[in-house]
Automatic annotation (TrEMBL):
PROSITE patterns: VOC. SUPFAM superfamilies: Glyoxalase/Bleomycin resistance protein/Dihydroxybiphenyl dioxygenase (SSF54593). It comes from Aurantiacibacter gilvus. This is VOC family protein. Residues 4-132 form the VOC domain. InterPro entries: Glyas_Bleomycin-R_OHBP_Dase, Glyas_Fos-R_dOase_dom, VOC_core. Pfam families: Glyoxalase.
């Protein structure tokens, strides 16, 4: 099955900081942009940072317990190959990104075993990047 690229628009309170984070820290090439928004190529998917400081100021940040960690809700991210995930984890660590949940292997020995990490962009949007040694286990229950 070929997956179609998804599109996600999210609020930021500082477009300059968003460009620095998504472009330079995350390594996402910038696409079409204006004074109020920026497109980024997020591993073949289109994400758009919209200048909306009033929305960012109102956003709440809750958590849910998962595998002994408090997972930020809401959050978004993507499933990478294990090598890509490790490369990104190493880059984020080298750039001094603060993690909500540091890179680790979740659900060890279970069908859903996965590498995961959680961090935030400069506007506080939570991001989860994950990888599976066997991507066919993405939705596995047994």
């Amino acid at each position: 099955m070929t997956l179609s690229p998804f599109h996600l628009a999210f609020p930021v309170d500082n477009l300059i900081a968003a460009r620095e984070f998504w472009g330079n820290v995350m390594g996402c090439p910038e696409g079409r942009s204006s004074d109020d928004w920026c497109d980024f190529d997020f591993y073949g998917h289109q994400i758009v940072a919209h200048q909306a400081p009033a929305i960012v100021a109102k956003a709440g940040h809750g958590t849910n317990p998962v595998d002994g960690h408090d997972v930020p809700v809401p959050h978004f991210g993507i499933v990478l190959d294990m090598d890509q995930w490790q490369e990104l984890a190493d880059r984020l660590i080298a750039k001094g990104v603060e993690f909500d949940i540091k890179p680790y292997i979740r659900f060890k020995g279970e069908p859903g075993e996965q590498a995961t990490m959680f961090f935030r962009d400069p506007s506080g949007n939570a991001i989860e990047m994950k990888a599976f040694a066997d991507r066919s286990k993405l939705f596995a229950t047994e």
